[in-house]
Amino acid sequence: MRDARIAPASRAASEFGSVALVLQGGGALGAYQAGVYERLLAAGIEPTWIAGISIGAINSAIIAGNPREQRLARLREFWELVSGSATGAPIYWSGAPMVDTVRAWVNQLAAERAFTQGVAGFFTPRVPPPYLLWNGGGATSYYDTAPLRATLERLVDFDRINARETRLSVGAVNVRTGNFAYFDNTVDRIRPEHIMASGALPPGFDAVEIDGEQYWDGGMVSNTPLEWVLSNGTGLDTLVWQVDLWSAHGELPRDLASVATRMKEIQYSSRTRSATDSLRKVKKLRSTLCELLDMIPADVAASPQARALAAAADPALYNIVELIYRSATYEGQYKDVEFSRRTMNEHWQAGHADADATLAHEEILRLPSSDNNPAVFDFLTKPAQPLKRPS
Question: Where does the record place the catalytic residues (predicted)?
Answer without folding.
Answer: 54 (nucleophile), 217 (proton acceptor)
